[in-house]
TrEMBL record:
Keywords: Signal
Residues annotated as signal peptide: 1-19
PANTHER family (alphabetical): PTHR33376, SIALIC ACID-BINDING PERIPLASMIC PROTEIN SIAP (PTHR33376:SF4)
Listed name of the protein: ABC transporter substrate-binding protein
Lineage: Bacteria, Pseudomonadati, Thermodesulfobacteriota, Desulfuromonadia, Desulfuromonadales
BP GO annotations: transmembrane transport
Amino acid sequence: MKRFMLVLLCLLPASPAFAGGPVKLDLNATYGATSFHTQGAMAFAEQVKKYSNGSVDITVHPGGSLGFKGAELLKVVKDGQVPMSDILMGVVAGSEKVFGISSLPRLVGDFKQARELYDASRPLYEKAAAKWNQKFLYAAPWPPSGLVTKGAVNSVADLKNLKTRTYDKNGANFLRSLGGSPVSLPWGEVYSSLRTGMIDSVLTSAESAKNGKFWEVLDHFKDINYAFPLNMVTINLDYWKALDKDQQQAMLKAAAETENNQWANSESRTVEALKVIQQHKIAVSKADAALNKALDAAAAKIIADFRKGLKPSAQAVLDRFAR
């Protein structure tokens, strides 16, 4: 019986109770060390250490090296399998619908509107995170998503049967409604899938196209201003409550600063990334009036479908921004 109890105790999740010395926390990051959002998480960790006078020490683990990624992230943080994580909201919208708001197609047209949408939606995000036993700390946008393709996309006809890697359900439904063939893939498999022809395009930002060196396999970027999807950083509530008041305040201060910096960095990186991919011979173009009209019509259907089952508070946010 004693042996059974010992084995059982070994299988239980680590306790968030901290006995002496600095509080050490692991933060899971899905993207690699050079990724915009991972760098933001690392800056956040440095600021937390500074503002807590070294009493909170966060280690960021890039590239999903802890083995956690994708749709499971809400659950693994909820259960305390990892204390903190950087999470692409749209990927977990299947578990908590409001997290899909930022990746709705063509809901906002620029960074100013994207920030207004985020500020309006943040109370919804905080409440949803709490439901999943998490404290919402901050969120920041990817640069706007466009289509990186092997051939030019100038009309809806060019999207027919296009095998496109999308990052969430909203994107998949959007492209499918336009005749495309969306494919769900982990980010780490995208480049090799382009090489082998499993996919021939990617719905992503110019920043990601730059980081992925997509000019080696693709040659066009259509700036369709699809969405400004958000990544959020959360902490398990049990770990959060185990921190003292000063440590919590240090973390909140660092989160607010990181959030503002990341929003500014996202905008500046968009300009830089577009220049870089053009220097590597990726042709960058915007949609013309006819294509924009078709994209808006498809987006309206996705947004209308997304509304179904939303609570009035979320409906009110969409009413402010939907065209």
